[in-house]
TrEMBL record:
Binds all-trans retinoic acid and may act as a retinoid carrier protein within the epididymis. May play a role in male fertility. Monomer. Keywords: Disulfide bond, Glycoprotein, Secreted, Signal, Transport. It comes from Gorilla gorilla gorilla (Western lowland gorilla). One of its GO terms (molecular function) is small molecule binding. This is Epididymal-specific lipocalin-12. Its main location: secreted. Transmembrane segments: none annotated. It comes from the Eukaryota. Belongs to the calycin superfamily. Lipocalin family. The gene is LCN12. The keyword Repeat does not apply.
């Protein structure tokens, strides 16, 4: 009888442990003394990392731009443009300032009850690079995305900082994608 009770207890404990989902690591704080007026402008998206990215997604990612325009009320209107062949895919959203400078909630302009998304600028020198981290909460999971933004050549160590930020959030190298920018230049006539 004790053996049967022990087996039942062991199987119950195993089932409980399998049902638990790991707690995501805490998000790094937004950068101190964030200056929105210096951050605004056009950035090139040079790398993305996220828990929903897989190696097979690399072929789907083309180089694209993100343009941040600061409004008088502190919100950023963000427009993204990605060339695909001879046409342009665009999408936009609004970053609404949160309590801390450099931290925002994302308004995708969809119906009430949509997934909640938070984003923050983790680091930037305002002229060459920026690291942004976003977490969107769905009914089943938290979707993490880290963006490496640049305007020209990245300062030494920036790529390592991007990869280390991803690893600190539990991501592997398989969760990091870089668009192929070989021979790419923004085509104003397309986008």
């Amino acid at each position: 009888m004790r053996l049967l009770c022990g087996l039942w207890l062991w199987l119950s404990l195993l089932k409980v442990l399998q049902a638990q989902t790991p707690t995501p690591p805490p998000l790094p704080p937004p950068m101190q003394s964030f200056q929105g007026n210096q951050f605004q402008g056009e950035w090139f998206v040079l790398g993305l990392a996220g828990n929903s990215f897989r190696p097979e997604h690399r072929a789907l990612l083309n180089a694209f731009t993100a343009t941040f325009e600061l409004s008088d009320d502190g919100r950023f209107e963000v427009w993204n443009a990605m060339t695909r062949g001879q046409h342009c895919d665009t999408w936009s959203y609004v970053l609404i300032p949160a309590a801390q400078p450099g931290q925002f909630t994302v308004d995708h302009g969809v119906e009430p009850g949509a997934d909640r998304e938070e984003t923050r600028v983790v680091d930037s020198n305002y002229t060459q690079f920026a690291l942004m981290l976003s977490r969107r909460h769905t009914s089943r999971l938290a979707v993490l995305r880290i963006s490496l933004l640049g305007s020209s050549l990245l300062p030494p160590g920036t790529l390592d900082q991007f990869i280390c930020l991803g690893r600190a959030q539990g991501l592997s190298d398989d969760n990091i994608v870089f668009p192929d920018v070989t021979g790419w230049s923004p085509q104003a006539s397309v986008c």
